[in-house]
Amino acid sequence: AQSVTQLGSHVSVSEGALVLLRCNYSSSVPPYLFWYVQYPNQGLQLLLKYTTGATLVKGINGFEAEFKKSETSFHLTKPSAHMSDAAEYFCAVTPARPDKVIFGPGTSLSVIP
Amino acid sequence: NAGVMQNPRHLVRRRGQEARLRCSPMKGHSHVYWYRQLPEEGLKFMVYLQKENIIDESGMPKERFSAEFPKEGPSILRIQQVVRGDSAAYFCASSPPGGQGGNTIYFGEGSWLTVV
């Protein structure tokens, strides 16, 4: 079975500061990992995904994440926060075969001017 | 290529009525997923369907909720005899067949159900 935990339901950073959103997963099989972003009253938009290959994955809007198997982590980072990054961020996991995608509880990111 | 289309975007129902939410997957996608998002909560998996088959309904409430994905037409999430606790955003997502694309699922804009 797969599960996802996200440390910190709310994270605040100053504009221009580093963004770090944490995600840890558990999976009995090799996982595929995703980060999605949700703006108010909208659906979820895919930021980036890890399937196989390079463990450092680059996504849209300057975000990237690194898959660390030994730590079962897939933390999301961005070097410099922008006001438009304020949103809800969800980490998700699925096994490497057609199956449901399990989401973490989400982290709300606030960016302070 | 149109994205996942959900309708209605907003639906208001009185307690005891039925709610029907529709989802048309992206072109070429044969897998559909429904998730529910309650206020201040994350996304909870409800059901995973392929054409004419329910693959996993482990997240569906045992009563009043049903889902289908017929051979022709959109997927339907049906909630009978709605109660106030059913008020939530319901998101549909779709993915390509056979695990293509790394099981990436693409979301619709959601349907917001309000029960009064």
Shape of chain B: globular
Radius of gyration computed on alpha carbons of chain A: 13 Å
Helix amount of chain A: under 10%
Figure out the total of helices of chain B. Answer: 0
Strand % of chain A is over 45%
What structural class do the secondary elements of chain A suggest? mainly beta
Q: Biggest interface and which pair forms it?
A: A-B, 25 and 26 residues
Q: Compute the average pLDDT of chain A.
A: 91
Mean pLDDT of chain B: 91
Can you describe what's shown?
The complex is a heterodimer of chains A (113) and B (116). With 113 residues, chain A is mainly β. Chain A has no helices and 12 strands. Chain B has 116 residues and is mainly beta. In chain B, 0% of the residues lie in helices and 48% in strands. Chain B is built from no helices and 11 strands. In chain B, the strands form 2 sheets. In chain B, strands 2, 4, 5, 6, 9, 10 and 11 form a 7-stranded mixed β-sheet that branches. In chain B, strands 1-3-8-7 form a 4-stranded antiparallel β-sheet, with no helix packed on it. The mean pLDDT of chain B is 91.
Give a topology summary.
The complex is a heterodimer of chains A (about 110) and B (about 120).
Chain A: E1 3-5, E2 10-14, E3 19-21, E4 24-26, E5 31-38, E6 44-50, E7 56-58, E8 64-68, E9 73-78, E10 87-95, E11 102-103, E12 107-112
Parallel strand pairs in A: 2-12
Antiparallel strand pairs in A: 1-4, 3-9, 5-6, 5-10, 7-8, 8-9, 10-11, 10-12
Chain B: E1 5-7, E2 10-13, E3 19-24, E4 31-37, E5 43-50, E6 53-56, E7 65-68, E8 75-79, E9 88-95, E10 106-107, E11 111-115
Parallel strand pairs in B: 2-11
Antiparallel strand pairs in B: 1-3, 3-8, 4-5, 4-9, 5-6, 7-8, 9-10, 9-11
Task: Offer a concise description of the structure.
By secondary structure, chain A is mainly β.
List its salient traits.
heterodimer; A: 113 residues; mainly beta; 6-stranded mixed β-sheet; 4-stranded antiparallel β-sheet; B: 116 residues; 0% helix; globular
